[in-house]
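Hi L., both proteins are below.
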Amino acid sequence: MKRGLQKKCEDRQFLPPLGDTPREDTAAVMKFYKLPKAFSKLVLDEAESVGRIRPADFEGRLDLRRKFIFTCDPETARDYDDALSLATDRRGNRVLGVHIADVSHYVRPGSALDREACRRSTSVYFCDRVVPMLPETLSNGVCSLMPGEDRLAFSVFITFDRNGEVTARSFAKSVIRSKARFTYEQVMTVIGGGRLDARFANCAKEAARTIRAISALAQQLRARRFAAGALDLDVPEAEVLLDGEGEMSGIVTRPYDESHQMVEECMVAANEAVAKELWTHGVKILARLHEPPEQEKMLMLRAELRGLGVKVGDLSNPKVFAQFMKTVKSHPLYPTIATMVLRSMKRAVYDATSIGHFGLAKRYYAHFTSPIRRYPDLTLHRQLAAYLSNPASARVGSATLARWAAHASEREEIATEAERGLLEIKKFRLLEAQLQSRQVIDYDAVIAKCMPFGCFVDIPELDVSGLVHVSLLSSRYVRFNESDQTLSAPGGGRWRIGDRLRVHVARVDFRQRRIDFAPVRRG
């Protein structure tokens, strides 16, 4: 990450500005982070010219159009870039098929489309719009695996034995025709033993059988990952709701249930299979690298967890760490604990020289499954295609890979900061509106840190943090006890990390991006 961006992330003076109105907030954030707006006419014309399927495109491809293949996405999804299937081989082993839109067929190296996709490197997802990596002609059209439509794909086949061990893997350019598009909610209904509605009458039995079998495999793979030391940091996804004026009207928490886990495990398996195939055969790639946390960070985390009264072992041991995360899942302070753990982790990046993913407990890992929205995935598609025809042609120069890795990591960081920046603005607008209307709303809070001047609290409902000043905790002198990181006042008042409070907003400072809360007085 370039120093200029890092400075913006660390220095609170360099924060995305508000728009003149809530409707203009996104445009202000996009301008601040210099995100691209519309595609050029050259790029749009090229997308239009290549964005159609021709009969000749099917030549030399594995024809899977008769197979039961389906997609599973959020209700609001507009493009579907991955699909799933499951078969059984002659030995009774399960063969998982992960079918990814063959974006590389349409976006050729050196083309105007390719240069623009590389420049953007990633799609940016705001709460009110998407800044796509590719024009909609491709991302929502010919590269979207819509049901009932012939689509070009890159398929990964992974064979698992009864224990969930990989016994074989293969890859093929293919043509598919998705039989159904399911939402997570519909898939969850099937996993739970329910039935699909009348819209799927023509494939309901096969769909239910396939979904439940893939879900069972996914849970087996998930258990194996955690046994190997993967971290269980899954938390419900918060979705911001906006009204017609661009004001935040609320937050809806989307559950992370077995339907989401089914898709994630299949994508992880495909990413691992491609990375392992190429890396172990001497083909260097843009790996998705997640390094183990630093020892100093682990010691700090251990001290913080002890402050919560949580027993911990040797967190430098990945399996001990993984078991710890599993045991605290039911802890009432789990959201706070998960946040602490995430803050202690290194950021995952793209790397051309090292490989491995600590959080997923994978020795080989790269991004392959989202070429519509991530340029590293597109480069991996190209390398895999080259490898399948002539392994020597798949090799890319170290300097080129290093340049791609640095650029992709930087663009990803910019996208993440922009997305967070807009969410923060919307939340601050909501809380400021409550103050201005004198609408007092109480929130459940958890003390995350105690300092001599007050305590910082997390509001899980809003996913925001703020300060409760010592002057608002007690009318008496409040003392900070450094030995146990607590605040105390004469007469029995005592506050420590992990304590719960009911608070309401006392002050909102947009310039410093600071929120002050006040405790709710009882009685």
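That was the first. Here is the second:
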Amino acid sequence: MAEIINMPRLSDTMEEGTVAAWMKKVGDKVNEGDILAEIETDKATMEFESFHQGTLLYIGVKEGETTKVDQLLAIIGKEGEDISALISGGTSKKEVQKENTSKEETKTISSPIENDGKRQLPEGVTVVTMPRLSDTMEEGTVATWIKNEGDDVKEGDILAEIQTDKATMEFESFQSGTLLYKGIQEGQSAKVDALLAIIGPKGTDVSGIASNYKVDAAAPKAEETPKQETAKVATQVETKLVAEQVPVSTSSSHRIFISPLAKKMADEKGIDLARVKGSGEHGRIIKRDIENFVPGEANRSAVGKFVPAGQEDFEEKANSQMRKIIAKRLAESKFSAPHYYLNVEFDMNNAIAFREQFNAIPNTKISFNDMVVKACALALKQHPQVNSQWFADTMRLNNHVHIGVAVAVEDGLVVPVVRFANEQSLPQIGAAVKDFASRARSKKLTPQEMEGSTFTISNLGMFGIESFTSIINQPNSAILSVGAIVEKPVVKNGQIVVGNTMKLCLACDHRTVDGATGAQFLQTLKGYIENPITMLL
């Protein structure tokens, strides 16, 4: 039966989401755990993975479109399955579950768990599973239960603090009701999607439901047992005591209730807990109390503990979609392609004179970067191995030359492509690069203008950088880093004279470009750069 995928709630304040990119298209096979799409929330752009297996039958929100949480995002089912009724009605998953009482699965908003057909859930009862709170999280540990069985729970209330492989995070409820059952005790660990809790109407018998789910929970680690934690109570808050609202003492006269996450944050910031007023239940200090704490003038607390006068400060900026893609692609390139680097230094005296003469022509102006692009294009025609691309089963030796020119923009770096650069004149290359740079900074480049490069050039010379190395822009086999032209003493004909030189570094993928091949390319490039008139022949 087809599964309706709704726009997920990916942050505690998220009301709607925008589809930044679809990773799957209609007709693609989808496995559990595959990334379906990248969703822009009010806080960040996040990867949204599938909790179902099948074929992507329908996409309800196109790239760039925005919709409310819980609205129809996509439909996954069996290939060829008729879903016209679901599409025409714009039915949400919640509506389908309400109308279809024979459905065999009940999901939380963020994490699914199978009912195995053993029994249907009573109306209003929701199974809450161990959430996936980080992209690498395989299991989580319950550090502290904020709610106890029998407590009323509202949507947005913090249920528990979960320790992941990266941090301790507050996990909020997406449902309202009564906490009827805890499937994992404090200090225990369980796999993602294991039974964490059951929420529903007060007085509902859920003992049979709980028995249908296997909880793979490990016992608390030895160093986390209550007996040993009590011995460390002056420096570490015992999570069990916190959940039961039993005070923890830092001295004989001062008692503090605090969550493990808040305690960790306070330690990192050097905050004296005796001076923090808790806003949680029974005066408990929680995360927001530490975040909002403003230190007073005194440097010592009521119990005599010294507190630093200064306070660490920082700003967090959500990663843009561009920044995330750049990071992903550069990491893939750096850790998959065996890079090596060839460094050279060219004499630029002739290039300087050539440019001055060329720019003396009315309505003509070229840059040194334009000259490098043209010289590389001509050299690549003679060395197709450097103009190649690596794929899993093949190596593509390109006969055409499309050169990507790296352009810095506010959110990162884009690489528009000068197509058939070897066939274009210097003024044509100059006009194209100038146009690309202008439109890149105003975010008006099209995706097609940034695709298809066979070689890339990155130039930081205008920033005064003399030499640097770059990461290959895959699937290219090489990238050229271009530094600034520097006036310096050089030796010519046995004499020390004033000269102008420029350093370049060629990063090569050793899978396609051998060291000798890269060196021969640089020798050819040297001929064009040091004798630029040859580029016009």
